[in-house]
Amino acid sequence: MLQRWCIAAGCDTVRGALLILVLLAGGLFPAPAPAQDNPSTSPDGGIHLGVASCASSNCHGAREPLGTSSVRQDEYSIWSQETDPHRIDEHHRAYTVLLEDRALRIAHNLGLPDAASASLCLDCHADNAAADRRGPEFRLADGVGCEACHGAAEGWLGQHLTGAGHKADLAAGLYPTEQPVPRAELCLSCHLGDRKRVMTHRIMGAGHPPLPFELDTFTATEPAHYVVDKRYVGRKGTENGVQVWAAGQAISVVKRMDAILDPENTPHGLNLELVLFDCNACHHSSYEPRWRSQPAAGLGPGAIRLYDANLVMLQVIAARIAPADAASLRAHLLALHRATLEDWSAVQREAAELRATALRLVPLLAGHDFTREDIAALAAAVMTVVVNGEDVELSGAEQAAMALESIIAAMRSLGYLTNDTMTAIDNALDKVDEALAGATGYRPEPFMQAIGSLRNSIPQ
């Protein structure tokens, strides 16, 4: 599994790397959320014209920013790695990895002839539009191309070329990726899953790696092909990475609770759908003493634990913005974990409560103007969770590290940190990266120490 951690100044400066291989064979879970609960719709319908329709040097295929438009105009070049081959765009190469030995081995383990022709894999590794919705220049081998995120271009491309503006493009069907909630729903449809894209423990057992995800960090490491400057703000409004992180955590919780509530994931006899649970609760050496109490779970040693890292982060956010909801999340999360020792109906009952609270938080967080005081308090709270040992297994450590990358990037872009301060912070972040390097070699204590050093480097 490739380790890449990043920190972004604005939206397009990458510092390191993040834990992800690529958009592999699907999301983690199906998502049966009722339509009225979904804050957005997917970018689907219409003819997909292919990335070539965007790649003209006068449109989005310039070798470098032209400076003559309200957008960079080198977006295609960034996506296709033509400007910097050392910065890997995982969306661009998502299809080609299906041709590699590892993907072929996973496919064979699942009884598939190959990965490059299986919908199970293509639904996330490519813009897998139906055959009758592919234009003459559409190429499945382009991977996760423009229309996979921005929607079928047939409906909006003509309007887009008139230069009438972003609002007109949206009205014509362009997907609103600049808005935190629709962006979260879209990204999570692969990085977590929906009804079309399903990950199971069987697929992971066949060799597919876990998919840890955090919306703002992944936006930056893509690498982002836009910059939040005055022209961007004029067209699309301000973007605050902390707001994106917060909304992404809330949507992640909604989707994970959807998975628990899905009748397809109800246990059958002794068989649990283990993809709902935290991999690291079981997948570590039995010869090294790794277990430690996790207050958020309240479970003893030997109990498998539902994945709850997003819920822990959402509690941290809500404690600052909506304390009553934070208390509700805390109580029902403990009850959820206890219920796994009792019966699945109790698990679903608590999941429904957690889902309702997270759904209530979505518009609040997506619309909240995170102040300097909010951002500083959230950074301190995330570090406290780690330093106090409240959630320091690998899944929790990943989410905490990505949260801090996002928060510190926002501090930097908003001018809250001096260059001298950033030098000390960058050095501390390097230690955080080292502590997380290699999932199989992760140990909580070095990570906790690294976060403690980071806390000391950030001005209070």
Any chance you could write out the topology, listing elements then pairs?
Layout (H helix, E strand, L loop, with lengths): L74 H5 L21 H9 L9 H7 L20 H5 L2 H9 L4 H6 L8 H12 L9 H5 L9 H7 L8 H7 L4 H21 L47 H13 L1 H17 L4 H23 L5 H16 L6 H20 L5 H18 L7 H14 L3
Helix pairs in contact: 7-11, 11-12, 11-14, 12-13, 12-15, 12-16, 13-14, 15-16, 15-18, 16-17, 17-18
What labels describe this entry?
mainly alpha, single chain, 18 helices, disordered N terminus, 460 residues, 0% strand
Q: What do these coordinates show?
A:
It is a single chain. By secondary structure, this protein is mainly α. It is built from 18 helices and no strands. The two termini are 35 Å apart. Helices cover 47% and strands 0% of the residues.
Summarize the structure.
This protein has 18 helices and no strands.
Give start-end ranges of low-pLDDT stretches. Answer: 1-41
**Strand residue percentage:** under 5%
Query: How far apart, in Å, are the first and last alpha carbons?
Result: 35 Å
Q: Using the alpha-carbon principal axes, give the shape.
A: globular
**Count of alpha/pi helices:** 18
Mean of residue pLDDT values: 86
How much helicity do the residues have? 40-55%
The number of E-state strands comes to 0
Biggest sheet architecture = none
List the secondary-structure elements in sequence, H or E: HHHHHHHHHHHHHHHHHH
Radius of gyration: 21 Å
Structural class: mainly alpha
